[in-house]
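We close this part of the discussion by returning to an individual protein. The encoding preserves chain order, so positions in sequence and tokens coincide. The sequence in question and its structure tokens are set out directly beneath this paragraph:

===
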Amino acid sequence: MVKAGPSLAAEVRVPVTLPPPWSPLSDNARKVRIRSGMSMGDVADALGVARSTISMYELRKIRISRERLEKLAELYGVMPDELMEVGK
């Protein structure tokens, strides 16, 4: 007869991690920019980056920092969550 020991599941610890300081923008980010009436060049000038950076954010080829995300959301007049990939 096999004696039951402590459950292995009880010994597994899930590490708590903070969200990264950067994330991909959602497909919605481009729509929000267009709705705000701004071109990629306008946004780039306001953020102090190259137009290609804005393009790469919207195409999700690079990730955006929290700081820049907050500036972008403020510029568009939306909450940062509206620009993010939620649950990704």
